[in-house]
């Protein structure tokens, strides 16, 4: 049965334009837009009318970097695909791209199938997968081609975590050469893990065990060096490169220099690097453990370079790297040894609101907010224009956003399955009011009306951001 929804009276904001328009949704897709007051808009009728007066009407967010149920450091990320995607919806995100993990010595296919099984029938919003390559060899390189054909078009490699996910320069080069041929995009965790492990060992020998030392040993220069090295390897391979969770001014400078040469090099940062700092890592009584993630939080002075990079498009995307671990029983595994604290922060529910606060604060324009949170991640990872915009034919993933409402971020009220908030007590201006996923109400006037299993697996095209 055909269902029609009409969103009336809002300011429609996409990466390209802002217009006062009514939006007609039919059978899960955007059917048409019409400027307010026109004859076309006046003639529309619908089964359901949503009043968006004084509100923004924006595309659902695309969070291209999440880790639901990720095994790490002897435990698992505390959000399941069910709880994590529900929290994402509350925060105005309607698509996530999570990471399937290859186990060393096993096939990519085995890891991918395990993640398909974890997510199947559980998600409240649509989802896709990247593939983590832990073991680059002749067999897995051939498998990359097959995965690209079935819509897994990006592959993450790690220059960090020796003995777990680490790839050496030769393996990285081979994977990049393969992606240059098959159209895949290499995503890089750029930190010099070999050198970091030496500094970790030395710090622990000196009795420096508190969470703040996690940030001190993971040096800015070792992020910048790895970023530089990844860029040069990509140049040798003739492949595009996407550097994840960029946190340091010197790493942004490496990306900017490469882009100034016309190279297809892209960068992502995360809200934690824009809003938090080493001050949080240094909080007393082991509270700093809540903020342990890799790349680590940096001194506050790095934030200006990240905001500037977002404005100049040397950084193109803000994702969350959502990888939550409860403080009680999980982060506490690292009491007395910071290297045993599970790495990761919760944030999938907070990204759209924090970035709107950045608009209020003057760091970003409204259209740039939508560009870095919706349109570019969709283009970067082959989901556009199905996702990331409001245009005829696009999926009806639409958020009615109240730019004037204020809220206080807190673990008391969030929907992520984690016992603390990284942004506890922070007041922000702007709040999600209503969320549609493929035309279905998931959040209706601040009430969750979605369900596990509504979200569909979404195969992806190759990167649409090139050229």
What is the gist of this entry?
The protein is an alpha/beta fold and 467 residues long. The protein is 31% helix and 23% strand.
Q: How does this model look, in words?
A:
This protein is α/β, with parallel strands linked by helices and 467 residues long. The chain is 31% helix and 23% strand. The strands form 3 sheets. Strands 1, 2, 3, 4, 5, 16, 17, 18 and 19 form a 9-stranded mixed beta sheet that branches. An 8-stranded parallel beta sheet has the order 6-9-10-11-12-13-14-15. The chain has a two-stranded antiparallel ribbon with strand order 7-8. Helix 5 packs across helix 8 (220-237).
- Largest sheet, if any? 9 strands, mixed
Which stretches are poorly predicted, pLDDT < 50 over at least 5 residues? none
Helix and strand content put the structural class at alpha/beta
The outline comes out as: globular
The radius of gyration computed from the alpha-carbon positions, rounded to a whole number of angstroms, is: 21 Å
Helical segment count = 14
Mean residue pLDDT: 97
- Number of beta-strand segments: 19
Strand proportion, as a percent range, falls in 15-25%
Instruction: Give the helix level as a range of percent.
Output: 25-40%
Alpha carbon gap, first and last residue: 41 Å
């Amino acid at each position: 049965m055909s269902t029609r929804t009409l969103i009336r009276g809002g300011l429609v904001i996409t990466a390209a334009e802002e217009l006062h328009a009514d939006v007609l949704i039919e059978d899960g897709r955007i059917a048409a837009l019409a400027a307010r007051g026109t004859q076309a808009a006046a003639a529309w009728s619908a089964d359901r009318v949503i009043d968006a007066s004084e509100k923004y009407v924006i595309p659902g967010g695309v969070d291209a970097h999440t880790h639901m149920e990720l095994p790490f450091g002897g435990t698992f990320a505390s959000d399941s695909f069910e709880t994590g995607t529900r929290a994402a919806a509350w925060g105005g995100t309607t698509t996530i791209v999570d990471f399937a993990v290859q186990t060393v010595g096993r096939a990519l296919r085995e890891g991918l199938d395990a993640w398909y099984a974890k997510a199947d029938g559980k998600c409240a919003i649509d989802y896709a997968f990247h593939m983590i390559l832990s073991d680059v060899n002749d067999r897995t390189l051939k498998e990359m081609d097959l995965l690209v054909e079935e819509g897994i078009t990006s592959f993450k490699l790690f220059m960090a975590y020796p003995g777990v996910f680490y790839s050496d320069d030769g393996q990285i080069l081979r994977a990049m050469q393969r992606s240059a041929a098959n159209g895949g995009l290499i995503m890089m965790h750029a930190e010099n893990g070999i050198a970091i492990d030496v500094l970790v060992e030395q710090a622990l020998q000196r009795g420096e065990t508190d969470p703040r030392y996690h940030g001190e040993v993971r040096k800015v220069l070792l992020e910048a060096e790895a970023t530089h090295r990844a860029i040069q390897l990509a140049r040798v391979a003739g492949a595009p490169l996407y550097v994840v969770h960029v946190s340091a001014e010197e790493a942004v400078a490496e990306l900017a220099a490469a882009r100034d040469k016309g190279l297809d090099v892209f960068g992502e940062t995360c809200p934690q690097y824009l809003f938090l700092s080493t001050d949080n890592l240094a909080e007393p009584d082991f509270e700093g453990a809540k903020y342990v993630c890799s790349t680590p939080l940096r001194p506050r002075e790095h934030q200006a370079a990240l905001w500037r990079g977002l404005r100049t498009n040397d950084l193109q995307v803000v994702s969350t790297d959502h990888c939550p671990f409860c403080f009680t029983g999980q982060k506490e595994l690292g009491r007395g040894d910071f290297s045993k604290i599970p790495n990761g922060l919760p944030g999938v529910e907070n990204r759209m609101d924090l970035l709107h606060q950045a608009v209020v604060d003057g760091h970003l324009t409204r259209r740039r907010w939508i560009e870095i949170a919706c349109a570019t991640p969709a283009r970067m990872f082959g989901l556009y224009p199905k996702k990331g915009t409001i245009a005829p034919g696009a999926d009806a993933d639409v958020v009615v956003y109240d730019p004037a409402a204020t809220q206080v971020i807190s673990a008391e009220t969030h929907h992520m399955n984690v016992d603390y908030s990284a942004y506890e007590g922070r007041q922000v201006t702007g709040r999600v009011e209503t969320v549609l996923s493929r035309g279905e109400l998931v959040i209706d006037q601040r009430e969750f009306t979605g369900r596990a299993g509504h979200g569909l697996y979404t195969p992806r095209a190759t990167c649409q951001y090139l050229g």
